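re: the backbone from monday

yeah here it is again, tokenized this time
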């Protein structure tokens, strides 16, 4: 049987351990917020969208420093083309599209192509789509989030260009 004095000491120790645990859990948060946002902005740009990217040529993108920054983009997958299905050299081209309504009758769409390479993307973009795709598998018409780097523009039709991006990370937004 525990005496009241011993119970008080045990309760006090539990409180001290709880406070210490809370301090340890939240201390990394203060370190994260101590990072200068200017340092982050030098390597990543969250202001760019598929629309704004589609309105830039390479020279303008280079002038704004976008060619050397990570871009966070979202859009709908409209086309998936597996260029190399071997797992060790896996390469897939994904067309990423976003759009907007202009008034009530017109829709404008903006697109770019994203190249994902490497074995870690083989399971995300399978050559044969399962009937019930597991979480993490990306199929046509999925809304996805990507981190990418701008590579170049290519002419897709006379006078019309599209950006080609190197996909670094991606995930479906479901």
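seq for it, each position gets an aa:
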């Amino acid at each position: 049987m525990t005496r009241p004095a011993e119970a008080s000491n045990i309760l006090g120790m539990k409180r001290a351990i709880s406070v210490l645990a809370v301090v340890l859990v939240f201390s990394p948060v203060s370190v994260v917020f101590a990072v200068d946002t200017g340092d982050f902005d030098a390597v990543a740009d969250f202001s760019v969208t598929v629309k704004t990217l589609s309105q830039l040529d390479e020279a303008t993108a280079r002038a704004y420093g976008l060619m050397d920054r990570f871009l966070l983009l979202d859009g709908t997958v409209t086309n998936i083309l597996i260029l190399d299905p071997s797992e060790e050299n896996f390469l897939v081209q994904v067309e990423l599209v976003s759009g907007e309504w202009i008034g009530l009758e017109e829709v404008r769409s903006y697109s770019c192509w994203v190249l994902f390479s490497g074995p870690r993307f083989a399971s995300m973009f399978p050559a044969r789509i399962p009937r019930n795709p597991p979480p993490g598998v990306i199929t046509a018409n999925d809304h996805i989030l990507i981190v990418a780097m701008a590579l170049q523009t290519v002419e897709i039709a006379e006078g019309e260009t599209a950006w080609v991006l190197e996909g670094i990370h991606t995930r479906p937004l479901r």
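The first helix runs from residue 4 to 33. The two ends are 54 Å apart (CA to CA).
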